[in-house]
Amino acid sequence: LLMITGGYIVTNLFGRYGTLDFFEASVALLVLAVLHLGVWRIIRRDLVYLISILLGVAAVGAVLFGMLREADATGDIWALSVVALAGLLAWATRVVARLGKETAHMADAYDRFAIVLGLLTMYIASFGSYAWLWYLGLAGGILCVYYLSIVSRQKILLGTASVFLTLVAITLSFRYFAAFGATTSLVLSALAILGVAVLASRLHKKYLA
User: Fold this and answer.
1) Proportion of the chain in helix, strand, coil states, percent, rounded to 5
2) Would you say the C-alpha torsion 156, 108, 32, 74 has a positive or negative sign?
3) Cα distance between residue 61 and residue 110, in whole Å
4) DSSP code of 23?
5) In angstroms, rounded to a whole number, what is the distance separating the alpha carbons of residues 177 and 188?
6) pTM of this prediction?
7) I need a surface site. Which of 10, 50, 94, 139 has the fewest CB within 10 A?
8) How far apart are CA 199 and CA 209, in angstroms?
């Protein structure tokens, strides 16, 4: 009943044709977060608890997006905000989940989602005006994910870093070497794929096997 009521509130706030008030939406999201937390105290389901955290961070994001729209911010600022929110989601989940023993096991629940969201946002932003700055950010982010995969011994993080490294390498090959012909770009892309595969294989054998 609480979730249905929350959904009704959101529907009414979002149901204005052609407009979206981020500040009103933040209130609705915060109310939904509290409602989900209340439901969790009754049924003790991990998913409900995690949704409450997600909605709480989304409420912060709605306020931030409202400010950005009022300031007529550029796409790069919006992208940077999304990356920051991804980091906030991972951090907030760790902090909130560790407040109680029964929720401590959920501390890293959003880590992988936050990593993918952050890297994907930076990759999309790299097609804008400040491409090389975003590529530098991607390089740093990918290196961090490789490091985390080794420290935490998680193969999925190794795979995530490898996928984004391959994606960036292929993009660079076609974006900056297309003038030398499609064949050159394809050869460079193939070499990049092989190089990433060798790197991932060696890291797996040395640290994760």
Assistant:
1) 85, 0, 15
2) negative
3) 16
4) H
5) 9
6) 0.88
7) 139
8) 14
